[in-house]
Amino acid sequence: MRALVTGAAGFIGSTLAERLVAGGADVVGIDCFTDYYPRAIKERNLERLRDEPNFRLVEQALQDVDLPSLLEGVTRIFHLAAQAGVRKSWG
Description:
Blueprint: E1 2-6, H1 11-22, E2 26-31, H2 39-45, E3 55-59, H3 67-70, E4 76-79
Parallel strand pairs: 1-2, 1-4, 2-3
């Protein structure tokens, strides 16, 4: 299985990516590292994935990425990218 995980540097996205990799999946994670909370938190979430040969991180916004290239060979998509917290989402 080859999976795409959006929001891969968030708590839920990184945990899912870890489980998928542990289960033998190839995982492409994408995250744009918004400044809603400190980048160091997201970096910490990714610590266990950085050295995994079956994990690749794309640091880019979804609207700016080359989707055909990103989705090549992907068999599962886990769309977890979102604005953390609802306050900022409601303006």
